[in-house]
# Entry
Amino acid sequence: MSTVDATTAVGPTATTAPPRRRRRGNKGATRAFWLFAGPFLLGLVVFVYLPIIWSAVLSFTSAQNTVTSTNFIGFDNYVDLLKPGPFRSSLWTFTIFAAIIVPLTFALALLLAVLLNQVTIARAFFRSAFFLPTACSYVVASMVWKLSIFNGVRFGLANQVIGAFGFDNIAWLSSISPPWYWLVLATVRLWLQLGFYIILFLAGLQRISPELYEAAYVDGAKPGWQTFRFITVPQLRTTSVSVLLLLLIAAYQAFDEFYNLLGNSSLARPPLVYLYYTAQGNQDYGHGSAGAMILAILIIIVTLVQGRIFGFGRAEK
Amino acid sequence: MAQDAPVTSHTHRPHHRTPGSVLGAVARYGALVVATLLFLLPFYLMLRNALSAETDITSPDWTLFPKSLHWGNVKEVFDDPSVSFKQSLINSSVIALAQTAGTVLLASMCGYALARIPFRFSTPIFYAVLVTLMVPPAVTFVPSFIIVSRLGWVNSYQGIIVPVMFSGFTAFLFRQYFLNFPKELEEAGRIDGLGYLGVFFRIVVPNSMAFFAAISVITVIAAWNQFLWPLVVGQDPSKWTVQVSLSTLLTAQTINLHELFMAALLSIAPLVLVFVFLQRYLVQGVAETGIKG
# Structure
């Protein structure tokens, strides 16, 4: 009833008012726009655009211990970084890490989401258990991993378990061959990020119409692999593309667990850890800024290429 | 009428249920239970070690349950002069709450303007906001630190809070949300003589509480857990957040394990509480960001 009243009340005013309101509204609307969006946009300019421009300028100077260097040296910083050395190996570290963590998270999140979607009892409980680590920080998780599970000595849980099968203790974080530290780094991140992607896939799965499965069943498709392959996977395309891109960006931003598990170790030092020690440790802002520029360019290229291949831009109308 | 759908699906099911599908169900639940135990194990280890005596943690004959529970570890963490854990908790709380309030207020207003207030340049401005999503915030830490140090904000709350408050992603999510907000409600408010501010704060916001809650919970968790930026800006121990304090303890030469685990447990306690009470919003929020992302 009240909705009917509202529409009849809106009707006449809406048809008679527009010309006058639009003319009066324009100046008011412009002012309102700046009132609403101005503070945010100002912040964006000062704390996102300005830093990037400043950094771009600084990347062409030899800025040691100063952030206002005027000593232009052209592309020297970039050349230094791209020569074989710690920055280039940090890009390798990122590549290895992404090659491990992206497919692993994708597959496990999809698997667990499909399982969750198929059960009816205690679904909310399982979902909560998988999602709970999302509330944990990388610092805390690194601590549990480093000091409790993958402690290199006897009281570590992993060594307790393999000890029960008669194996010797393993120094998980300092063993180079085989490089067990990747197991530690990958499992920390899996534990922390899986829940988030499970929820994304679950949301995607729940948007698939059940009629599609029924139609496939009528057409003789066996429930299980066939419906998964020919209905679930194609229907999840948009979600999958978002998940892949988010996973890649998240892997590329890796800092917390590497810093807390390995510190400034040359074993596995991703770009941000290297830049942190360059800019904060050595106060070398020239090289630090050049590194930030290279990373920014790389991520833009990856995003654009992925957009080209998978049509990422189409996901948001 | 509404009963039709469930009834048919129930009557259909038993026909398909072969011995194979019962086995399948057992396997599914088995896999989920194993996965759940693995997911909860680290929390249990944290709890176990936090309530253990130091010797129980490092004992060569390690047991799943500690031999005795040491609740005194809580007091020990707060009394330890080398950590100033209480100060870190205060810092983290101030930072997480202020950052969330700022982010949600500014991003929601900007998102509303982009979605609903007619303005000639709103499309290019929207693209300018979108571009910032392409550059991960972590990549800008060097340049942002330069700005913060020029402002003299190193070692200050505002230095930690303000630069990370302007989240293009959050503004984007709010814009997408407001695009679907029912126009009739706003019209009704305008007829009652409200301006843009009045319509926004007295009609749009109160009718969007679920979405605001979801975004707030996600922002609080992210703000509480952030590490690199507070590490870079809050260099003085008096400005350390919980994460920075824990990390300092973790990478120190000598550590009291039971104290460290108790500190970690205390640091996640507030978030687990938020999580338990607001999980529904959280999941909904994540699911919605996923759809749009």
Notes: Residues 1-15 of chain B have pLDDT under 50 and may be disordered. Chain B is about 75% helix and 0% strand. The two ends of chain B are 37 Å apart (CA to CA).
